[in-house]
Structures are given as structure tokens and as C-alpha cells.
Amino acid sequence: MIIRAPLHEQDFKEGRATSVAGSETTIAEKYTTESKFGTIFTKYRKMIVVAMHQDNYVAIPLYTHNGKGLHNKARPDEFVSIKDHRNEDPKWSKLSKWDPLVTEHINPGIDPFDPKSTAHLAYPVSRKYTLPVVHEGQLRATSLGLLTQLFTKFAVAD
Prior knowledge:
The protein is mainly beta. Helix content is 9%, strand content 38%.
């Protein structure tokens, strides 16, 4: 299942914000909030649900890295490209060494996925079922199998 929901990240860095309250940020102020614990970066993110439990589920967030894809990422193997099945651009290409995840169904009214979208396998998030989400669609069965294999690989610490 592919969803979209707010993702709150503390200590968002990459030169944009730091964990020191009152620090200067260069990213759009509408995404940051200062708290006594430091800067909190909040953005609606597409996520892919990989595990479901009684009270919560685990999802892998998708990132475009401001349209740059995996350019300059220190660990690009931690990411897998995701392709919107509606994208018929012959120039589309995967950004990581893994086969891409491909959507099978996207609900009406959902915007196309950015061609630079990647799932960050090593950065899963846990969410409660009671939190609101937008249900966006589904992955192909073969992609769901690949995602399960990759998630298992990255979920176990070396």
C-alpha cells in the first residue's frame, strides 16, 4: 500500500537546519518548526507500508532530494527507485543498483510520482493506524516481493 502522510524529522541537516533551537534555516520556512528539542522538519511524504502490526505499521518514506535523486548521496545502495506505471517516458531510468519498484494502481486524482523518487530502505518509520493518511495506490506484486527482500536486508543491522 502506498500512502501519503506528514513525516516529522528532528535534526534535519544537509546544510538546511540543525538541532540547535533558533538556528538559521535555508529551506522554506513553511516546513520547519522550532521546538525546545531543536528544529523539526515536517513534510507530506509518500510512503510504502512494509509491515503491519496490531496498533501500528512500518512504512518506507520516499524522497526526491529536491529533484536531485541520489546525486551526492553517501550510501545510494540504501535507496531503491520507484516508477509510476503511468510514466511512459522512454528516458526514465532507475537511480540505484536495485531493480525499480513499480506501481500497479494509483487512485484517481493522485499526482504522478516524480521520476527522481526513491524509497529510503534504511530509514523506516513506525506510525499508528489512528493517524490520518491519503491512500495513493499499490505496488505491483513483483515489486512488493522485491521491497520485502530489500527491507529485510536493511532491517537487520550488521
